[in-house]
Amino acid sequence: MKLFISHCSDDTEIMDIVHDSLDKIFDDSTEIFCTYKDSILAGKDRGPALARQLRECDTMIAIITDSYMRSVICISEISAFWAKNGKIIPIIYNGDTGIKFINKLFGQDIIYISSESKNSNDLVRWLNTCGISEHKAELAKKWLDAVQADPDNLPKDGFRAFISSEKYYDNFIHYCMKSGIRKIQNTPLEPRYIHENLVGKKQVYLVGTNNKGIIANHKETFKNILLNGGDLYVLIANRGSQFCRDVAEIESIPSGFDTFESFEKTAENENERLQTEFSLVKYHLRAIYTSALKENQDKHRTLGHLYFGCAFTAVRQTVIMGLDPDNFWSWVTFTMPPKRAANTISMEVSGKINNSNPDEKYSLIDDIRKYVLEICELAKKYNQFYEVTMNSFLPEYFAEYGNLDAAKWEWKKFYDNAQQNMKNHQNCSRELIEIAAQHPLVNGEKPDTVFKSRLDRGILLYEELKKEGKSPVIYIPGDLHIPDRRSLSSAGTEYILSTGRIPPEDLLGEDMNRKYKGEDGVYNSADECFTASQIFLDGDFRKLHCICSDSQAQRKKLFYWKFGVIPMIHTVPADIFHNDFDEAFDAVPNIIFSDHDWQSKKSKHYRRTRLQRKPDFK
Length: 618
Known about the structure:
This protein is an alpha/beta fold. It folds into 3 domains: about 1-145, 3-Layer(aba) Sandwich (Rossmann fold), CATH 3.40.50.450; about 185-385, Endonuclease, Chain A (2-Layer Sandwich), CATH 3.30.870; about 405-615, Rossmann fold, CATH 3.40.50. It has 22 helices and 18 strands. The strands form 3 sheets. Strands 6-12-11-10-7-8-9-13 form an 8-stranded mixed sheet, sandwiched between helices. Strands 2-1-3-4-5 form a 5-stranded parallel sheet, sandwiched between helices. A 5-stranded parallel sheet has the order 16-15-14-17-18, with helices on both faces. A hairpin with a 3-residue loop joins β10 and β11. α12 (about 240-250) crosses α13 (about 260-295). The longest helix is centred in the middle third of the chain and has 37 residues, at about 260-295. The radius of gyration is 36 Å and the shape is elongated.
């Protein structure tokens, strides 16, 4: 028997043990080739010598370590021996790289050795008890026959064309065809090609930092998509996010800079360019929609929808994707800053959408589709998803959750607007007092102690303002809650009237709930602030006072800023009803970074409070 010892030259520890054990295991009739012992000197032609030994030896002992699995020479040795039906005894020593493949290939024939096994007798015992099955030889022959007969139809029972650490390789063309890759190029895609592949699709998605280039250059294509009844989804990053500032900085590096100050200046200029592009994106989207609407007036076709959403930092690659019920087409760039997407390698991926084939091990089509659709869902989850219409509001930027700078930028706009509204009302004559309601009512009819304490504070404030010669009005919010028998507004109004201290004409309640919230009703602190803000802005009021618990104060203040009013907050302690910790680390951050006003029917807080409080809400 002629034996080939396959090992990595870095593994001296285990090879010392193997070398000492060889004489104990095999008699003189066994010829052993091992480069640890029979070294092939540097400068010699190693290739032919190794190839000759691999041809002549009929058994191989492979000392498989992490170093072994990373060595091209080692992998070549075991691959060649396996392909020629040679018998292999695999010994895994202190390694786990490629273990999945090794287990699948060799099964029960594997010997495991750890660094704790220090003497050669252990190795002798392991080798003497190791059986070599015929499975490996049969498997190798089956694989070679299959490759020669049909390279595009390889058997799937545990082998591959090239062995590597936890990676699967096939014939390159076969891999591309199976994955849906149709083209790879390092130049921008021609406009005509994009038009041909997108216009007939029912859903088209654009994912990128801001997508300005593709939107500006393909407005006619996107207009035709809408005219053909297709929906267009534009998913961008967050204009004010750290993500965009990072993009600006990394794109500044190729410009070169002598000092940190010059780098900062360059990066700031780059950031300003990005900000301008974000504004242009919004302008182009409105232009696309307006053009499609105008052209469709005489044709009476069903116009597709145009959506705009914030993908936050989920943007990893620039993707153009078109879908119809069965077909998929996409263009994906390998975005590698500082190069921009248009200047990096990109590829076309297309094919049939088939989710019912359990034998399909890998599909790039499915990966791209999931990536884009999940980004869309993320935008919806954080209420940063809008339909573009003639009158729709498209934010200039979005608050990225956890990014305080971006949130500050956005909330500064809200606050500036509220300040301007207060200036506009400074010559008005009346003052509005909103008293935050509290549920449930006692026996479904009367305010509890917390609600009464706020109502009492409202009465005192009303009387104080009256003494100062002012004209106050009180608004008591709140609709019918589960399990009450009357609305919070009704119960609060009746309580105040029962004191005989305030006339009914200076009390507002259910009529304002109906006027401003309709069937949605008033069921949370955001609804209270929204309604009170509308009363203020529509009326002859110069100040708005809000009476609430101290733990609600910051939440209420933020809601008021969002609705365009700067309130004067008067707090009444109510320790048992609000958790200060949850308020500080859950409610307030959610308002700042994500759901600013709880007014959308998609808002989780809109639904949560109504499911808990509104009778018959579904």
